[in-house]
């Protein structure tokens, strides 16, 4: 997954949208909001943790992420409110990996790369 | 010597018929040479992806000894190549979760039925269908044996022997005929996250997706009669090969510890060319905790394959009768994603095998007494629709590869690449035209595992035989396949 965005928050939001597209199945049930917390300071590791949280919600609760309504970074990590729907997610993604992981500034803002274990 | 051998492949030079090596001087951060077992054709295929670069990266791990090794089925993985072997020496040598892989103790179990293929006859399709009904496939859950709390912890600590004692799954011989008796010592459930438990609790007895499969096979050829007799295999016999691992449980354990180790690289002054190789000294708290959690996942995986074998026996009982099910024997069960403490020339080493199989020779006290005269059985699944092989460990493995051989054919094309070349519908038709029964709910998943996406398993097996790592015992061909 390669992402280019103007802000760090947008990188995380775009990553969520990408995961949501990959997971989305046919059914779309009740809408649910979840607070997601990921500890850590370094952005690349936070991004892996963020994607792992979304994969975990899909794998254990059949929640498909739709959007992040709030993404706040603090010294300890990130806190976000994620809007999801309960559905039949395709369990294509098993984990986000650190393989060739990147999160860096670019001319347009930020560029990130995460390899997913499928 | 050929032009290729003289010029080398990505700097790797041919040092004998089936060994290619990159010297330690090739890159400043390499601590040992990198060595690949391959013939000329395979090394060219291997060079097409990033696996040789990944092998060079493995050679930088602190405490690595001998060489960073690759089997002929090597292909690109996450950080550490699939088909890679790295031995590190305690106390300062490291353990790397990426060197084991996400699917901890992914492995293969072979069951031998007391019937010949001609006796199975027209009931083959019914048998494959019955297995597909009883074994949940895909990435979901619900294996029918749900363990919670202390019962789940006992599985993590003791492996399949607890399933036999408390749930009547398997036989005492099954447990004995499993690598390490299906139980890695040192498993500590306290080192496993709640998240891993949540992912694994209802996945016991599920096959999974990707390259995991369950195949009904026929023994087409016996190549080493004395070893085949010891393994209980004969020509035309029906067998079932089970390929699965530790499911979401193992994935979560790996994810948890890659992250934990990534966070302490600076503390141990470890600098790595790829963060997925994150590691910690074997003697460190992080290293010890990972080994304890990895052992839990390995024991879970052996339990998972034990439940899958139980479902196969139930299917055999329904289609072929209770006597045939009762006389269905487990030949052996081997792990191909694991790190183990083993002794070589008096030194205790931590041998990481990622997509590589232990292959101990005759005389090893680590293998069941029944096999000690000939060596350990090793199972090498081919790609769908092609042959699989039963091998036996040879002494050369102890001298050249830390007691290791290959684990399969090895990918040579990405999943996306395979899907571009064939549709699942087409492939299903081709396999059925060969007389192979196919049960797979996903056409996409089927296409990704197309035979042409893999290297030639016969060539891979020939290399490990020529290298003296393992010898061929039997060739098996598919009758039917159940895939996730």
Describe the overall structure:
The complex is a heterodimer of chains A (118) and B (484). Chain A has 118 residues and is of the alpha+beta class. Chain A has a single domain (2-117), classed as Archease domain (Archease, Possible Chaperone, Chain: A, domain 1). Chain A has helices at 8-23, 43-61, and strands spanning 2-5, 28-39, 63-74, 77-87, 95-96, 102-106, 109-113, 116-117. In chain A, helix 1 (8-23) packs parallel to helix 2. The mean pLDDT of chain A is 92. In chain B, 35% of the residues lie in helices and 24% in strands. The longest helix of chain B is centred in the middle third of the chain and has 36 residues, at 285-320. In chain B, 60% of the residues are buried. In chain B, the strands form four sheets. In chain B, strands 7, 8, 9, 11, 15, 16, 18 and 19 form an eight-stranded mixed β-sheet that branches. Classes of the chains: A alpha+beta (118), B alpha+beta (484).
Task: Explain the layout of strands and helices.
The complex is a heterodimer of chains A (118) and B (484).
Chain A (H helix, E strand, L loop, with lengths): L1 E4 L2 H16 L4 E12 L3 H19 L1 E12 L2 E11 L7 E2 L5 E5 L2 E5 L2 E2 L1
Antiparallel strand pairs in A: 1-7, 2-4, 3-4, 5-8, 6-7
Helix pairs in contact in A: 1-2
Chain B lengths: L2 H5 L5 E4 L2 E4 L11 E4 L2 H7 L4 H8 L5 E12 L6 E7 L5 E2 L11 E10 H4 L3 H11 L14 H10 L1 H8 L4 H5 L17 H7 L12 E10 L2 H7 L5 E8 L2 H16 L17 E2 L3 H36 L1 H5 L2 E7 L1 E8 L2 E8 L2 E2 L18 E4 L7 E6 L1 H6 L3 E2 L9 H7 L2 H10 L3 E3 L3 H6 L8 H10 L3 E14 L1
Helix pairs in contact in B: 5-12, 6-12, 9-11, 11-12
């Amino acid at each position: 997954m390669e992402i280019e965005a103007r802000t760090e928050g947008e990188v995380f939001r775009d990553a969520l949208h990408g995961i949501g597209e990959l997971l989305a199945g046919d059914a779309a049930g009740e809408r649910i909001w979840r607070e997601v917390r990921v500890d850590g300071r370094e952005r690349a590791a936070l991004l892996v943790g963020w994607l792992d949280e979304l994969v975990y919600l899909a794998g254990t609760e059949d929640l498909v992420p739709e959007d992040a309504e709030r993404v706040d970074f603090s010294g300890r990590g990130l806190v976000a409110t994620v809007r999801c729907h309960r559905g039949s997610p395709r369990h294509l993604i098993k984990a986000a990996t650190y393989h060739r992981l990147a999160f860096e500034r670019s001319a347009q803002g930020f560029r990130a790369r995460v390899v997913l274990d499928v | 010597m050929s032009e290729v051998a003289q010029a080398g492949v990505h700097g790797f030079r041919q040092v004998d018929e089936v060994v290619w090596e990159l010297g330690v001087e090739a890159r400043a951060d390499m601590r040992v040479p990198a060595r690949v077992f391959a013939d000329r054709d395979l090394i060219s295929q291997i060079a097409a992806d990033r696996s040789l670069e990944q092998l060079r990266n493995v050679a930088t791990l602190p405490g690595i000894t001998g060489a960073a090794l690759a089997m002929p089925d090597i292909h690109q993985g996450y950080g550490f190549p699939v088909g890679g072997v790295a031995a590190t020496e305690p106390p300062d040598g490291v353990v790397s979760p990426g060197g084991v892989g996400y699917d901890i103790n992914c492995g293969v179990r072979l069951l031998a039925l007391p019937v010949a293929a001609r006796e199975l006859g027209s009931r083959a399709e019914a048998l494959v269908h019955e297995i597909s009904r009883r074994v949940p496939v895909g990435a979901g859950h619900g294996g029918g044996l749900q363990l919670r709390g202390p019962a789940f912890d006992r599985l993590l600590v003791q492996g399949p022997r607890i399933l036999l004692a408390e749930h009547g799954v398997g036989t005492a011989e099954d447990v004995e005929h499993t690598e390490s008796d299906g139980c890695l010592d040192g498993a500590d459930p306290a080192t496993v996250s709640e998240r891993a438990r949540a992912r694994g609790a209802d996945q016991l007895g599920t096959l999974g997706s990707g390259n995991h499969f369950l195949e009904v096979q026929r023994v087409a050829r016996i190549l080493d009669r004395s070893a085949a007799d010891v393994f209980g295999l004969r020509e035309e016999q029906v067998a079932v090969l089970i390929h699965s691992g530790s499911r979401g449980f193992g994935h979560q354990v790996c994810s948890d510890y890659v992250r934990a180790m990534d966070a302490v690289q600076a503390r141990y002054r470890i600098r790595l060319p790829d963060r997925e190789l994150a590691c910690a000294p074997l003697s460190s708290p992080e290293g010890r905790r990972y080994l304890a959690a990895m052992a839990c996942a390995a024991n879970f995986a052996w339990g998972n394959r034990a439940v899958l074998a139980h479902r196969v026996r139930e299917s055999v009982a329904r289609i072929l009768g209770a006597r045939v099910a009762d006389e269905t024997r487990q030949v052996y069960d081997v792990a191909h994603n694991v790190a183990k403490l083993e002794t070589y020339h008096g030194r205790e080493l931590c041998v990481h095998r990622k997509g590589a199989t232990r292959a101990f020779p005759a005389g090893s006290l680590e293998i069941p007494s029944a096999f000690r005269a000939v060596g350990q059985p090793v199972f090498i699944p081919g790609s769908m629709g092609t042959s699989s092989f039963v091998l036996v460990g040879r002494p050369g493995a102890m001298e050249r590869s830390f007691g290791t051989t290959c684990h399969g054919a090895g990918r040579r094309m990405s999943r996306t690449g395979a899907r571009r070349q064939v549709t699942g519908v087409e492939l299903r038709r081709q396999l059925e035209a060969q007389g192979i029964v196919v049960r797979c709910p996903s056409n996409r998943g089927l296409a990704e595992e197309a035979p042409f996406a893999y290297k030639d398993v016969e060539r891979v097996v020939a290399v490990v035989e020529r290298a003296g790592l393992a010898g061929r015992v039997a060739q098996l061909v598919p009758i039917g396949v159940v895939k996730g």
